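Give me structure tokens for this 366-residue protein.
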Amino acid sequence: MTPLLPEGFRDRLPPHADAAAAIEARALEAARLFGYERADPPLVEYADALGSRLKDGALTDAVRYVDPVSQRTLAIRPDVTAQIARIAATRMGHHPRPVRLSYAGPVLKLRSPELAPAREWRQIGCELIGLDSIPAAQEVVSVAVSALTAAGASGLSIDFTLPDLVDTLAAGPFPVAADKIDTLRERLDAKDAGAVAALAPDYLPLVEAAGPFASALERLRAFDRDGVLASRLGGLAAIAAGLGDGVTLTLDPTERHGFEYQTWLGFSLFIAGAPREVGRGGTYTVMHEGGAEEAATGFSLYADAILATAGPVERRRLFLPFGTPAEAGAAMRAKGWVTVAALETDDTPEAQLATHVYADGAARTL
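Here you go.
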């Protein structure tokens, strides 16, 4: 028998689909209160355009196909960020900066990561485009924390990274041959001290620089004898200070996986109960027509990953026996009840998965 769905895809059934939608709505509402307005780009775009809006953001994980109408190659978006960048650079190019936009919608990955077999995700996010400053980064990180909190997550932690660290050091105090930089990045990310020592021994202290935020930051400051990282490290300290004590902070300066197009700042978001990150963010560069560049900062969350930590989803449904006056049901819905009306005389609360039944003008627990 042919499987109902391809590998990496699944149905979202009640009540979990409702719960995921509620998470999405609460996260977007938290962003709206910070001034982030909703944009809703299409699921499919021209592949060449989608792959050119983020500097260093090649379209490597997109499903492509030839459009039978235009005969051009289209791509199903693997990430919404590039689409928001396109909107900000074109349709909203005239808008005063910074532009604050939020979004939510499905994305499709060509391949699923090992720890997350799904290929289709519901992505939620915010982008602040047109400003590269510490206050802008502080705001975006704060909005991400507020969105996760509003979605019901707890035990929040953030792991910061410096995606352009190797490039900055290689262009300054610790030169590295151009053909070795990519390998050095990979070996630092893997914490492979032996390979780093063979490639560029000056970078060895970075292998041990990861850990709790305060101590890792101090190790980086001690390593940065020439001060080339001073502005980045000062920025990280300011962002961390603005988050208070309610969020656990760590720092892994050489983490690169998932931060291929970010510039000086990257961060991964974790919550209690989730085996892997539930979101990522950072600074990046938007490409305009003609090659002009514009700084931006943003984050993306995944509703399914957040929902997986929520435990059993509660159903609270009020059964209205057959013949219950319409105005009685309306009155109970006005009080916040989900009502399920019997449409046949022999219908039962159990058949309708009800938790309460309407009797004598009130809700009674079953």
